[in-house]
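Narrative of activities, Objective 1.

The group set out to show that a structural description can be obtained from nothing but a protein's sequence at a throughput compatible with the screening campaign. Below is one input-output pair from the validation batch, recorded exactly as produced.
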Amino acid sequence: MAAVLDSYVDALASAPLADQTWRTYASKVRQYLAWLAAADTDGDALNTADGRDWAVRDYRTHLQVVLKRKPATVNGALAAVDDLYIRRRLGPASAARVELPGTAPRALSTRAQIRYLRAAEGSPSPRDQALALVAFYAGARIGEIVALDVDDVALSARKGALRILGKGERVREVPVHPKLRAVLAGWLNERPNWPGARDSAALFLNQRGQRLGVKGAHDVITGIAARADHLVIVAELLGHARLETTRGYTRPSAEDRTRALDRLLVDR
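Output recorded for this entry:
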């Protein structure tokens, strides 16, 4: 466990993260590994997907039942543990976050939104800009983002939509914010110049011309969030949908969703 922690801390130290971000993640992962060392879990918790899932679910129960941690604290711990597994190339655990009963969905403050958007738009890479803004404006999970294909993007001069495959194989169509539409168009113009673009259906490619993986997307978004110097952005964007604006409607129509998106931040 000590070797695993040392390797993880080294990876954090070399990542484009704010000091407070990596210190928080390192502390939470240290606590997880200490629990894991004493826990009686099934399978290889550090090297197999099944073992990972069983261990993280047990750890979630331990935090809730034994330590009686608040839901937000439990979710923060799970986000850090997911980061550990992403860096170990296993991907995030299949362990649901704890719901926050009786609270409204949390959105970022206006200041935090502006800082993130400026950091994203300041990226020299059209791919990274598009990746970061799909997370922001479309409210997509990181796994949903990397699963997008070029054919899942429909853009016109005035409108746009993303076809997103979510949990349980559920498909949803998300209207595209004007800012995101422009950035996606820029990336689609740039994409044919990337290696392997002709042979891949993936919207987002890595430098080898293959579909961008969860870890690669994680590093891009974490780096942008770190430049914005806001830890909350990392947890919100990587773990689950950030935007809750369109969810305020009971049964929103397509026009309702489009109008809601158009009211989001544009002038900064």
